[in-house]
Amino acid sequence: MSFFKYFAIAIAKPKQYHKFMKVSLKKAMLYLLLVITLATIPTIIYSYKNSKDMYPKLKEVHEILKNDVPDFEFKDEKVNIKDKTNIDKEVNGIRLIVNKDKDYSTEEIKNMKSVVLLDKNKLIIEIDGKMTGVIANNFKDKNTLTKETYIASFEKSLLNPYKNASKMGIQIIAIEFTANYIQFFILTAIVAALCIFTTKSLFIKMEYKELFKLASFAMTTSVILDLVLKFVPISNGMFKLLIIVMSGLIYMWFGLKHIKLNGYAEEIPYKEEPKRVKPKL
After folding, report:
1. pLDDT 10s digits, 173-213
2. Higher pLDDT, 180 or 235
3. CB under 8 Å to 129, separation ≥6 — which residues?
4. Residue 88 in 3-state DSSP?
């Protein structure tokens, strides 16, 4: 059977899941590996493009930090801004705010989109609605954090890694593939383990190895859902995880149900409880 036939049955024909019982465990795992690989590619392209687009903006922020932000220091849980003049201006599409008298809220900062903000409690850098650098007044390092030390840290941790987009792309590919492989092989193992209870409720006998094979195909829709959810603004990671697992369990339930109905698995004899007879008085 070709990959495309496996794929079609996995997402649209749970009634034919019995066909996967004849597939070797190695083939089932290779199928899951290929599905994960194909689903990871769009994420990599998106992340790579973001990385490439981010560098000019980070470079602009670097210039703002060097030339427009006044000297400051974070020490003993206090922020000390050397210049007394407050600033609120736009520099090449990035808003610069320096205000030693105000504490800006998270909601206010979110509405700014791209901003370098230094207020009486924190330093925040936000680019296109994403916070890339946050230092709060609870900074407890033994050394004082100054403007110079922060710029050096900014260059090392953000500016230089993004400077070479190809190197950053290799890192993204490695991270994305590794994370997805680990995540889905663990989730497949969990779904297969949970389906032990499904087989018991359906009174069929199946080994864990067989369930893992079926789960490798049943997780196809879960892999696609995971890809879609990465581009949906849902911040609750546990909710996303629940959707992914539930999708696999639903496909497994339908598949196992038809395996039982069509006699493709050994049935466990159903034993009725003996009727209780009331004793005669």
Report:
1. 777 788 889 999 999 999 999 999 999 999 999 999 999 99
2. 180
3. 110, 113, 114
4. strand
Strands (E), 29-119: 72-75, 78-81, 87-91, 94-99, 115-119
Does the pTM of the predicted model rise above 0.70? no
Nearest CA to 192 out of 177, 213, 172 is that of 213
CB atoms under 10 Å from CB of 56, counted, come to: 11
Q: Which of 73, 95, 40 is nearest to 150 (CA)?
A: 73
C-alpha span between 99 and 108 (Å, rounded): 14
Q: What pLDDT score was predicted for residue 179?
A: 85
Residues 13, 19: Cα–Cα separation, whole Å: 11
Average pLDDT over residues 222-239: 83
The two tokens of residue 269 are 């004899």
Distance CA 62, CA 65 (A): 5
Token code pair at residue 93 = 């599409």
Polymer length of the chain: 281
